[in-house]
Amino acid sequence: MELAPLLLLLFAFTLALFLGFELIAKVPSQLHTPLMSGSNAISGITVVGALLALAANEPPFARWIGFAAVVLATINVVGGYAITDRMLAMFKRKEKP
Amino acid sequence: MEILINLLYIVSAILFIFGIKWLGNAATARRGNRLSSVGMLLAVIATLLYGGLDWKLVAAGILLGSVIGLVVALRVKMTGMPELVALFNGFGGLASLLVGAAEYHKLHHRGAEDYISSLAAQTGITVPLAFAAVAISLTILVGGITFTGSLVAWAKLSEKISGRPWVFAGRKSLGIFLLLTALAGAAILGAQPAAPWSAGLLIGLVAIALAIGIVITLPIGGGDMPVVISLLNSLSGVAAALAGFIILNNVLVVAGCLVGASGMILTIIMCKAMNRSIANVLFGGFGAAGGNQTAATGEMKANPWKTPIMCWRQRAVWSSFRAMAWPWRRHSMP
Questions:
Q1: What is the mean pLDDT of residues B49-67?
Q2: Among the partner residues A44, A50, A87, nearest to B81 by beta-carbon distance
Q3: Which residues in chain A have their CB less than 8 angstroms from residue B69's CB?
Q4: pTM for this entry
Q5: Which of A75, B213, B226, B236 could cross-link to B148 by cystine, CB 3.0-4.6 Å?
Q6: Could you tell me which chain A residue has the CA closest to the CA of B101?
């Protein structure tokens, strides 16, 4: 069995892990909640997996589970970005005066 | 097409990285959030390019989810935002769990060999069957914990249930016992993925995962929920990354891992801002300092204004206060 491509995926995983650790360091405390909310929206990336479960040649039950997953993940993504934007808009208003 | 899809995935991963980076700075935060939303759009479009999907279900699912998410996010009151983030996070965790369940059903329905070879045809990666089975089990485990944990956090913050810590004897051992049982179940599934009883084992695993989420979060007080939500947010990223290992999708692995790692760092930063450790928050200090019972236990009550959400609420209150005061000041100027 050819395992090199799978190891490449593990390699990407490891690099992303360290990048994620280094990415945020000095975050002002008022940005904690928006940052949490914004990265929560990114974790809705699982929508990609949900979409791929909807392949037309899959058994119907798997497709219905996939459909539920698409709905939930899309709520996570769209709602997450919208609410983060609303939070950050409030900071904008504060800075103007 | 394969090449285009993967190039788009790379672009979207870059946008996520800059999105998170910019979110950590007040001047660029809003731009960062929009940038990462563009990254998400690209990732979804690239995935649709694979083709062969059940388009009716795809359109209906995306439409339904977008409408619900948008309406709820735009209507919620300012003070209700933190608990809504918890709820959204729970949905993300449940979605990962369902992805795991759907993939398991495919594996079971079509037979192991057929499943692995069709996966290899789509992604160009051949995996051992045990790897796929363990990835499915772990996705379900982490997704389930994220789901119920976030639901409890949501219920506590929105005062659907009491925010007081529900402390019961042996909760820590119960949590550890459930976790070990779940990991053993995942190992058995990895060893015997195609056994006829494996579906039952998987359903048991779902139940245990859901139970762990509740057992971990119930004993934590409402004032500590921001830290818990941040930790669960990190877990939902891990769940997404694990789901990426099932379907061998690199953007899922990378983006999920970024959220998992940066969410963990954010959790630690938030704990430090409260002068506490993660263990102290999770276990209320019991046993954290060798049975030192004078250590802070349960929920932090001394200064709720110092918790991040409270700081944020306080600032929000201030901003509306200043917005109200501004025209008045202008008129009264000599």
A1: 93
A2: A87
A3: 74-80, 82
A4: 0.85
A5: B213
A6: A65
